[in-house]
Amino acid sequence: MKIFINSALRLVILSIILGVSLASCKPGGEGKSSKARKQDSVILISGNINGTGSSIDIEMIKGKSHNHPTFALWIEDTGGNYMQTLFVTKAIGQGIFEHGDNSGGAWKPGEVRRPAALPYWAHKRGIKNDYGSFEPTPVTKVPDAYSGATPQGSFKLSTRADNAVKGKVNLMLEINQPWDWNEYWTNVLYPEDAEYKTSCQPAVVYSALIDLDSPGSGIELKPVGHSHYSGKTGELFTDLSTITTALHIAERITVTVK
Questions:
Q1: Of 74, 111, 142, 222, which residue is 20 to 30 A from 135 by alpha carbon distance?
Q2: What DSSP element (H or E) covers 219?
Q3: How confident is the model at residue 27 (pLDDT cuts 50, 70, 90)?
Q4: Are strands 147-148 and 82-89 parallel, antiparallel or unpaired?
């Protein structure tokens, strides 16, 4: 049996098809693909839920060079004295990497030391391990309340200070990702330094002055320097002229006191 479609009906069908096609190509809104929505999403993290101090939100929007970085967030007084850690990625904070031991022929979690990863924070924290350095190990690990899995993209951390703190403090962030070479920080710059080769461009340190007595809108953290290239010291080097892609791990970092 043949079905005949008149001109008017054919025009209606074509209009519907065209409308669907245009909607699927439309930027933003319902036309976005699942991948685009996932890329634009912000991972929500809760930390230190038993803290009784000020509630603090830190949001980081990933930059064009973002590639699974490790990072630590902490507060210190206006004189630069460490007060407490707010959050650190779990592998560094506990000294156990998911692929840290292949002694049996297959990868399994195991202890790994990475002194070049976040040395400024580690020295500020000031807890020596059994090796005489400051990166956390399973013995000197950061408690679970202050650590978590590495976010795969942009994130928003909602956390609290341990106790009530009054007045102004510095909100600090140190961020790094491995094997981040550039024209200056090359793989032959320090050929005898194995720890340097795990980092290359050193960790970048960000800071913002916040007032815990004055809740308000987001304050942007700014880069203030970089750490020692292999973690041997807790120095902060303020010359960022040789740092390139490492400054684009994050596009924007803001803190809000609630």
A1: 222
A2: strand 219-220
A3: very low
A4: parallel
